[in-house]
Amino acid sequence: MSSDTVPSSPAFPDTFPLLQDLYGGVDLDVRVVQRHYKSAGRALQDFKTAVGDAPLGLATINRQPGHPVVLALASDTQVLVLKLGSGQPMASHVTVRMLRDILGSYRRIFVFGGDELALGLHEHLGIHVGNMIDLLGVACAHEERHTLTTYLEALGGEGLSNDAGERILNKDVAGGMMRVSGSGNVRDVALEAWAAGYAGRLRSMQIKIYGLQRIDTVNLEPSLLSALYKLDHDQRRRQAVRPTRVTNEIAEAVVGKENGHLQVVSARYKTRVTRTSRDQHIEVTHSVGGSDITLKGRATKIDGRSATIACQSDKLRTGGKNDAGKSADQLSVQLTTVGRESSTVAERMRASIVHLALRHQADLFDQPFFCAMFLPEEDTWDEDAPMRPSLPIRFAKEDALNDSQRNALQRILSGANEDRLVLVQGPPGTGKTTVIAGAVESIVRGDSKRTIWLVAQSNVAVKNMAEKLADVGFREFKVLVSKDFHHEWHEHLYEKIEHRLIRSDGFPETPNEAARLLGDARVVLCTLSALAVDRLQSVTHVVPPQMMLVDEASQIEVGDLLPMLHLHRNRLEKVVFIGDDRQYRMPTFLGDFISQYVYDGQLLSEHRNKSADCCRFVDVAEGKETRAGMSWRATNAPTSSSRSSALNAWASSRNNGGSMSC
To answer: What is the superkingdom listed in this entry's lineage (predicted)?
Structure first.
């Protein structure tokens, strides 16, 4: 789809009646007018004149998260649907200027899901909103908003038609409601905008709406809005590509004798059965005598590899040797988790920070580490802010340090303002883990009151740091680990440091309990996501995160650092990132090609194989692209052509010293 194309709606004329079926007993003559933005000036002016200062409903269809291509404005009796293009010419068009005037005033604009909408309007159209009210907020806290109950309450609750809930669940209604971004048609988006405006004007909703914080982007800096857009957009894109079906590999399955539920043992951690969220269920396919039945269930209890699944277990039969050769008590079942995995605590916190910033409830400009990472053009550090003095290197293996390791340690131990944010890079084998151990030992030995947290994206990386500390003789640390990762799955990984572990089911609930568990430890290790867990507050109270040292930083999407930076903004004094800027282990020829044509030359690869023989180009212009799991494949394609031969010849010439150019 080119930048100027939008979803076509041949089934809908330029003007048509909107037959709403969300509210029973509501008989309004609602007309929908649709126009392309280039020819919408008169229609938009007429709409603006007709509605005066009355509140409006607003909805969009997005090509991708946060990128509107269709916009609908609704009064009580009229909906104007505008088909948009993209790029600077559209942003300066008279229609968009009129939209800025309508939405940037302090007229009430009602929406379902305002964060993405407000940020997308600013990023792609330069439109600010002055008084946007997200009706999803009437029902719940931010992190629980995408449920059927939430949408029903946002629509007003009372007066809804009998099939309103079913329509929402089937994603047929209100363009953006509980849908994958980008779906919907003109009728859908018109109905969503009208429903938002209608619900916002209901008498029964006024008290609930009164307590909601408004989204106001008029009084936020453009640089901050762009940063918030990227934070929101990147997370939504990541969530959108999560699989909707995951096959759970099972080692054993029986019907429990006590509760009659299905009891299973997962075979692999990656495909294990996990707790099902509200939007998920488990398909249980049972084979007996050559026939299959499929049941729907939910995982109600998880304990290590074992899981309890509530389903119609009376339909599950055993007896003798079944088709899979299992014993009498064993069931032949296949499990599939249906529905996207719910957001993690850290992901919900990230979204919540964006949510608060748009409502002027979180001042991110007042957070120097946020500014340093997301708003680098802003003044970051307060020159008058007190800094701890620099510390000398005090490391048992100091004599073995090379010049680059010594320089990295000095920057980490520096008390200078310009060293409050430090980046240490190096490929494998350059001693980065030794630098981490040296920094920890020097800080603990150099200042009896300083504390340090070592974090990484993965549990394995955290474990590796802990083992390195133990190897150099440092013992005063604690490792926080998730029970779900440790129990019955990876206990063997922690044998060397088992006595330093605090598992999540044993996290302290009070500062006194935390002080007892931590003892004299001033060094704590955990994953980045664990920092967002509420029960960790007692630990951070006893060992405040004054310095954060982030290992394997190149594996972390930068937005995932936001919860850490925001949650500990009042205690954080220094952040050190350690990683490998050449993290990608692919043959350099292949890596360079992908870098140049996909990543604007920003991707760096490290590999001993520098030969162009590592890949071949095959022309599949006549092939048909079909989805294969999380990827795509071409079928029915010719095996070779003059074009693929030319590309292979070009690759060969590069291998023989030729330069790469396209």
So the answer is: Eukaryota
